[in-house]
Amino acid sequence: MRYRLLIIFSIFCFVEAMAQDGRQKWAEPQLPAEWGLERMPHNNANPNVYVYKDKRYDALFTRSLGWNGGDGVQTTLLPDGNVFWSFNDSFYGRATDASSRIRRSSNFPRNSLMVQTPGEDGLPGAENTNFVWLADWVQREDSTAEGYYHCRTHLRHPNGEKTEAQIRRGEIDQTWLYWAGDATVVDGCLQMLWAGVYNGTQNLMQPRNRALAVYSLEGKPGSPEYLKLLSVDHNFIVHDPIGYGSTLWEDEDGHTYLYSCYQFRKNAGDLLNTSSPVVARSRTHDLRSPWEYYVADASGKFHWQNTYPTPEEARRSAISSKSVATPWVFKDGDWYYMTAQGFVFAREVYIMRSRTPWGPFEDCRHLWSMPRELDKLGTRTYQHFYMPHLHQSLSRQGELVFSTNTDCKEWADNFNAVGSADFYRPYFFRVYNWKALFEE
Q1: Phi, psi of 11, rounded to the nearest 5 degrees
Q2: Which H or E run contains 60?
Q3: Is the model's pLDDT at 322 over the cut of 70?
Q4: What is the mean pLDDT of residues 40-44?
Q5: 3: pLDDT confidence band, cut at 50, 70 and 90?
Q6: In the chain, % of residues over pLDDT 90
């Protein structure tokens, strides 16, 4: 009996020592209180990984006048140190203050833009004064009149159904629209991809064309020249069901890599689709240069081809065996990493890696998980968690920064109830010591 107890005690000591050793390998981050980070304990099985809610950025996007909600949140660092932000469906109008957070009269532009200026430390500024909203306002003069602090859609689809008179009144196209893809800086201008969407059949949001818009970077935020739309090619890709360029990686090899996920049923009897990450690339960093698509042939051998993949080609061209959504790729050291959400609408965000930007991305690890409840008044549970976008431009110490999108169960829950203004808006999270996941 004594011998058995001794063995058990020895095993316990060994396991405890290993756990202690694991905790001590990576030091806990020492973070200034003014950053407003709130740790989420037990968010990762690896004790070295620290996940935080970013309460300071949450507060910046808890807004009551003008923009007060939006999804599809993406950022691009600009050469002048400013950060370019794009949003998809957004609410513009009024909401009540922090005591009730009720969204009142708002309209619903399908895309909009904002610029964040640097703070005194050179990092993206974290004060309201650092946000410059590039909004086409309906009217801001009369708070008692219709359309107060409403906003028009930034980029209309050429097939939009509203007349110019309706647009001037603040009405929004709902049948044909654009949602934002990623953006990059080339030759002193911002190039941005826009996904054309047709919403005329049972709100199915069917992908159509891919547009390429070019913006000026002359002047300063707030001036007429800054981010002025110089050109837009609505037929850059006439039909783009896959959505290449939802996210980008500008590589040192001279190419810009364009990622998306292609959803399909592997087997006829499957109840759910699978969602496979796929990649294309532009011949140079200029997105107007010819594109090549990374495609596997019938034997599974990959090659770059100039023609847009057929559905059959896309189905066999996954660059990861994991079924995921919202892939983001970046490089650190000799490795390329991809972050992505588990499909479909999983709370888990994963990270995997590859030696090349075209994969395969394997060695998949759990990175962090979305909490089940939101930090808000009123109803705290949400319906879907989607589009966990990675924001490299917001990182301060090499941590990974995410914004998240969540919606409520019923559309009407976005209005006229306590806490309704804090649905359909981003919440922010930072992940420190993430490389500990891949420590040998």
Answers
A1: -65, -45
A2: helix 55-60
A3: yes
A4: 95
A5: very low
A6: 89
- The pLDDT value recorded for residue 181 is 97
Torsion-angle region of 110 (φ positive above 0: left; ψ -120 to 50: alpha; else: beta) = alpha
Mean of per-residue pLDDT scores for the chain: 93
Give the lowest-confidence range in 10-14, 193-197, 245-249.
10-14
β partners of residue 368: 349
The number of residues making up the chain comes to 440
Q: Collapsing DSSP states into helix, strand and coil, what is residue 296?
A: strand
Cβ count near 307 (within 10 Å) = 10
Element (H, E) at 167: helix 164-169
Q: CA 71, CA 179: separation in Å to the nearest integer?
A: 10
> Exposed, middle or buried: residue 251 (CB in 10 Å: 0-12, 13-18, 19+)?
middle
Dihedral of the alpha carbons of 60, 343, 248, 179, in degrees to the nearest 10: -60
**Rounded CA separation 54/375 (Å):** 11
Can you read off the two tokens belonging to residue 153? 């859609």
CA distance 430 to 433: 10
Sequence-distant (≥ 6) Cβ neighbours of residue 267 within 8 angstroms: none
Distance between CA atoms of residues 79 and 217, nearest Å: 9
